[in-house]
Write a structure and sequence with these properties.
The chain is mainly alpha-helical and 179 residues long. Helices cover 77% and strands 0% of the residues.
Length: 179
């Protein structure tokens, strides 16, 4: 069944492949690991737009509130889109460099593991400091792309396999078209 679906996507009409990709994204959005992330975004949005109160300028305030909400939502989507594009670039573009330098990276990883062992044992005091940032968010719209990026990082675990499948199919289709 899977090879039949893959063949249909690769050799079939583009609109079918696009619709199946869109459906896979919608299904992944409703997955159990994404649902806990949604209240964080909704509370950010509610804090950004505030509550509307009736009054003479209520229509103007509603328009400004909608514009602010749409702008914040677009920036939020931009934030997690950047994360997914970066993930795609890393998986499809940098993997060759990682494979080429695997021996060097293994040695570097081993050295970092040894240093972190010394840190955990208490031998490297500067790396044991605890630093806390006491920044209070002010509800600015510029936080939307950052929140979207954090949302995307949390979503990577759920969407990663689906996105990787879609990217692999599009990459193999591109390669097949070139030959």
């Amino acid at each position: 069944m899977t090879s039949g679906l893959t063949d249909t996507i690769v050799t079939g009409p583009f609109i079918l492949a696009a619709l199946l990709s869109l459906a896979a994204g919608a299904v992944s959005f409703a997955s159990p690991c994404v649902v806990p992330l949604v209240p964080g975004y909704l509370s950010y949005l509610a804090g950004l737009v505030g509550s509307e109160s009736g009054g003479p300028e209520s229509a103007d305030r509603t328009t400004v509130t909608r514009t602010k909400a749409v702008r914040a939502t677009a920036l939020f989507v931009l934030g997690f889109t950047v994360v997914f594009l970066a993930q795609s670039w890393l998986v499809l573009g940098v993997s060759h460099a990682l494979l080429t330098n695997s021996n060097l990276l293994t040695r570097i990883g081993g050295a970092i593991t040894i240093v972190m062992g010394f840190v955990m044992l208490g031998f490297v005091k500067p790396l044991q400091r605890e630093v806390r940032l006491h920044h209070r968010p002010t509800g600015r719209i510029l936080g939307a792309p950052l929140l979207g990026a954090v949302f995307g990082l949390g979503w990577v675990l759920c969407i990663g396999p689906t996105l990787l499948g879609v990217l692999s199919l599009s990459w193999s289709t591109e390669l097949n078209g070139d030959s």
